[in-house]
Design brief:
Elements: H1 9-17, H2 33-55, E1 59-61, E2 66-68, H3 73-82, H4 89-122, H5 125-164, E3 173-175, H6 177-196
Antiparallel strand pairs: 1-2, 1-3
Keywords: Membrane, Transmembrane, Transmembrane helix
Amino acid sequence: MKASNHPPHEFEQQFKDQPLHRRNFNAKKRRSWVSFILTLIALVLSAISAYHIFYKTLFRLEFLGQSVNYQQFKETIHQLTNQATIDTSQLEHNLNILLTMIHVFFILVFINIVLAILTLVFNRTLIKLLNLILAICATLIPVAILYVIREAAKAFAEKLSQYLGHVDAAALLSEANGLHNAIICSCIATSLYFISLFFRNRRPKFK
């Protein structure tokens, strides 16, 4: 008796009804090295901007013959309070505003650096967006300090003009390179944070 060339019906049905098991690939996303490098450079620049604000000369009190950095700030305000020759209450008020703004700047830069480190590790868009917003705020503070210094110099010059005639505001109070460098570094860092937003981790492509 010859064996049948066709498999039994049950045998065929077994293949038809058998579910196909497809392998799910949960491949890890490929890191965006462009974003990593941009964020790393921006982090360094943010730290440099804080360094310039903390250590370098921010402005010069020409009438006292003194260059002022962050460390000398309180001492300068104390000197202005103790001298009784000229009413400097408005200038003291402006300098106290500057001191508060500098403290806020340091806090923002610290948070900025922490978020930048988290971005280097995770590269999440939400973290990068939040970091960009803080970087913009941190950049605006040195610019605002520059504006306050110039306005304080003008106000002080107007007060002295009652006694001495016309006085050049820049000859009384002027910003220094430390502030300018902080503004430049902060602007570049903010630009790099913005550009890095367009580079995200991607899943590898399978053929």
